[in-house]
Write a structure and sequence with these properties.
Strand content of chain A: 15-25%
Oligomer: homodimer
Pfam family, one (chains A, B): Mal_decarbox_Al
CATH architecture of the domain at 28-215 in chain A: 3-Layer(aba) Sandwich
Largest sheet of chain A: 8 strands, mixed
Protein name (chains A, B): Malonate decarboxylase subunit alpha
Number of helices of chain A: 18
GO molecular function, one term (chains A, B): transferase activity
């Protein structure tokens, strides 16, 4: 007797689970109050479960329900989450509902996650960039269940995610076409969605949430907190990098350093005659500090990973700049945005918490396992790139007939961090964290080999011009100020590095320190930005210091 | 008087064009016979136009129409095409309808495109990998018009692309959310599509095609053409790479070399006891030569860039393995597949036409500018990768505390090509082509720095173990056979390289040359594969040599 192999085990399991939950379902729709029972019927021990935690938008109704399931019925889950953001994301592990975690970013939970790993309460699969985590959903982390959030859902189950599309279509696709179960929490059930972001055919279960999904304004930086040191660094970056390399397309990391640059373009950049010459094309969350540059005509296009609270009306009124649908609302897309940030932009510029003597950097510090989100992806040189742009080509090494260009990867830091500790350190804390957490490799965010420039308040190190590790170290020391590492530099070394164009001080770039004043910013407060936006930008309450 | 700036120029232009074409449209639908007039109304001189040419599926009705427009009305287009496959794709440039081209692959048109560039009949923007071309659609190549192909379209304009989804959703998204015009040729208009692959909200114009879109079976390799040398190389690769490095996930390039490996897994691999131990997870077009391995239980999952003619029924019956929708048909996705092939697999293994003395390789040869498709993307080491797997980690250099793993990138070639010319050359023809075509860089497909292994009928060079360029050259010479490059190697050099594990000959791997017989293949013909598939695989007529 030959045993007949089944090729439909996933499909059969899905059908069985949905049948089991049948009494809780009216077509695809479930009742809000049945959410815990529903998850108990649809999720089995050991399942790979993708729980949508973008860094902004959270499937918070579903995560709060998942932590309430009966641990005797649902346990040992393998959670896959791009962002571990909410307390219950880790409560799942405390309660034994989940066992293993693959993730990308753990900003708000970075201390607790670090402790839980030390205490063996949580088994880490690995830390990823967003893009590689999404990629694995189609290869070796194929989900059994995905839990996602939508703004509006119509009676057929078509999803509208609007503005905050983020990663939802990508994670839904991985489940919908591999007999995974797609469960959606909806802010609202409507007769007709403004547009379809994800077709109903891809969706199994819709459940109205008790309250709208959590959404954080993570990319808003209030200009009133930008310091004159940051302005000085911004001026240097504009002259010594944007202008020098003819940068046309860029991704800015989150932070006050890059916010300063955004607010200097319409003032300082304009005086330099750079308008129309640099950075027309952006991959970026819609950060309010870019509004003055947009209004001044600096920006031709912005594609976004996600939305930003308060920017809805402004974006809707600027469809020439943003990706806006026929319905008048932006569509974001985290997977495609990360691909664009990796492969299609001239430059990534961001910040970090520590840089070591070789130029490796990390935001992982003692007791904090934050992950990196998209930074390693965008802050690396994709060696598969085959198209050329002037900025990329400007980093081509001389003398190699088979040479090619390189992406500009810029780290911009003050020599001492907010905690008064040196950013420049001989060894990254990440080296200790590797041991404590038992990681396969040191959690480096951006490697030295990918880092082409470092900007501090002292000057710019053009690392791509160095031709040995010793020279690279000297260049970093030269701009490391009065940190212990910086004190190793001496006048002769500095003079030599300046003469060879490996290090530039403000005066080498024609940047006057005395001009680095807050008055040089195109906006000095969020209220100024509201004015620039002609009242279209609507800051969240926590950022409103005025009536 | 202040001039009021418009922020809706793209939206207004789109509205105006669609209004202009209004007499040809009934809602979103146009008549087949009006296609040329329709394109003349909707496309303007200088537009960026994405014309869907996947390497398999072609928007052939629309491309044939575009070449018939009045050049006085539509001219100087900037064409963006992942694949230049059909004669009219280049006729557009001969006629002056188009002027500039950004592309990825030009297999069937590679000779003509090379000549046209020399004759200045065509201005090349650049040659890209698929993924970077898609990425630029969101940054600096935002389309005004996209022309795509769908299988079925319902009365609302929802698209079903089925099996051959490929790049359609990605290129449609770039236009639909930036006020570009999305024009779709449909094989069939139906009341209800089997599933929605692209929502109607994203689509502007649908036109029934006069005949179904062109579709080529590009990934089918008939086992009867696999040689014993290829079988020998396949055996070496299985022992010396797949087994040695514990490879779990892989992308195979197209060709008889990798087809041989696929057909050796259920025979040779089984004898070695490797079943269940290696390559459960694949990113791959659904190639028929993998059927015996699937049927033998080697393969847990396959995600695909596109479909393959004849594989429809087989895939539909194997949803545990392939990505199949609730409707029972596969969904492919070229953009996500390329991301997975870049970031989520242990190994890329493919072939090439030339390898230089340093290990750089290219398929661009004199007079042929073929482009590279996805090979440079998948055949490169993504330095942004942060997760670890045993295979990746096995290439980690010793002694560097901040070290990390590397993707396996394997080139597998016979020392002499089909044209009897050496594959191993001191200098790539691509160096000449760069000059002739005025390209910014030499069109290298895979750089030496990314290449970790080369397999020939002589042996395997473990390039990742070399620690100088001189040693790398010696390792390549040692496996380059009787090519002029290979003749530079000598017995002592070879003995030294073998002793240090940098080169392995068949005997070093326990591979017996005498076993490399066609009878070792799990299938020796496509007919055998049909049998393996239990009659579910249906080879295209051109591959049917029987009944």
């Amino acid at each position: 007797m030959t045993e007949v192999k089944s090729w439909t085990t996933r499909r059969d399991a899905k059908r069985e689970r949905l049948a089991h939950a049948g009494s809780l379902l009216d077509g695809k729709f479930a009742q809000t109050e049945d959410v815990v029972a529903l998850l108990e019927h649809l999720i089995k021990p050991g399942d790979k479960v993708v729980l949508e935690g973008d860094n902004q938008k959270q499937a918070s109704f579903l995560s709060q329900a998942l932590v309430r399931v009966d641990q005797a019925r649902v346990h040992d889950l393998h959670m896959i989450m791009s962002s571990v953001s909410r307390p219950e994301h880790l409560d799942l592990f405390e309660k034994g509902i989940a066992k293993k975690l693959d993730f990308s970013f753990a900003g708000p939970q970075s201390t607790r996650i670090s402790q839980m790993i030390s205490d063996h309460k949580l088994e880490v699969g690995d830390i990823h960039t967003y893009l590689e985590l999404f990629a694995r959903l189609f290869i070796d982390l194929i989900p059994n269940v995905v839990l996602v959030a939508a703004d509006k859902v119509d009676r057929d189950g078509n999803l509208y995610t609007g503005f905050n599309t983020e990663e939802t279509p990508t994670i839904v696709e991985a489940a919908a076409f591999k007999d995974g179960i797609v469960i959606v929490q909806a802010n609202e059930i409507v007769d007709k969605v403004p547009r379809v972001d994800i077709p109903a055919d891809w969706v199994d279960v819709v459940i109205p949430a008790d309250e709208p999904y959590q959404l954080e304004a993570l990319f808003t930086r209030d200009p009133q907190n930008i310091t004159e040191l940051q302005i000085l660094m911004g001026m240097m970056a504009i002259r010594g990098i944007y202008e020098k390399h003819n940068v046309q397309s860029v991704n800015h990391g989150i932070g006050f350093n890059t916010a300063a640059i955004e607010l200097l373009l319409p003032t300082y950049g304009e005086k330099l005659g750079l308008k129309g010459k640099i950075v027309p094309n952006w991959e970026l969350n819609p950060t309010p500090t870019l509004i003055p540059a947009i209004e001044s005509g600096w920006v031709k296009s912005i594609h976004s990973f996600g939305g930003e609270v308060g920017m809805e009306k402004y974006i809707a009124a600027r469809p020439d700049v943003f990706f806006v649908g026929p319905d008048g609302t932006m569509r974001s897309n985290r997977a495609l945005g990360q691909v664009a940030g990796q492969y299609a932009v001239d430059m990534f510029i961001g910040s970090t918490l520590q840089i070591d003597q070789f130029g490796n950097s990390s935001t992982v510090t003692s007791g904090r396992l934050s992950g990196f989100g998209g930074a390693p992806n965008m802050g690396s040189n994709p060696t598969g790139r085959r198209h050329s742009t002037p900025a990329w080509q400007s980093l081509r090494p001389a003398g190699d007939p088979l040479g090619k260009g390189q992406k500009l990867v810029v780290q911009m830091v003050e020599t001492f961090g907010a905690n008064k500790k040196p950013v420049f350190v001989d060894h990254l804390d990440a080296e200790e964290v590797q041991k404590e957490a038992g990681l396969a490799n040191v959690p480096v965010m951006i490697y030295s080999e990918d880092t082409t420039h470092i900007v501090t308040e002292e000057g710019i190190a053009y690392l791509y011009k160095t031709d040995s590790m010793a020279e690279r170290k000297a260049a970093i020391e030269a701009i490391a100020g009065v940190t212990p590492m910086g004190l190793r530099s001496n006048a002769q070394q500095l003079a030599d590095l300046r003469a060879r164009g490996i290090v530039a001080l403000p005066e080498d770039l024609g940047v006057k320190r005395g001009q680095a004043k807050r008055s040089l910013l195109a906006a000095q407060s969020l209220q100024d930005i509201v004015e620039w936006s002609k009242g279209l930008y609507n800051p969240p309450a926590k950022f409103r210091s005025w009536s």
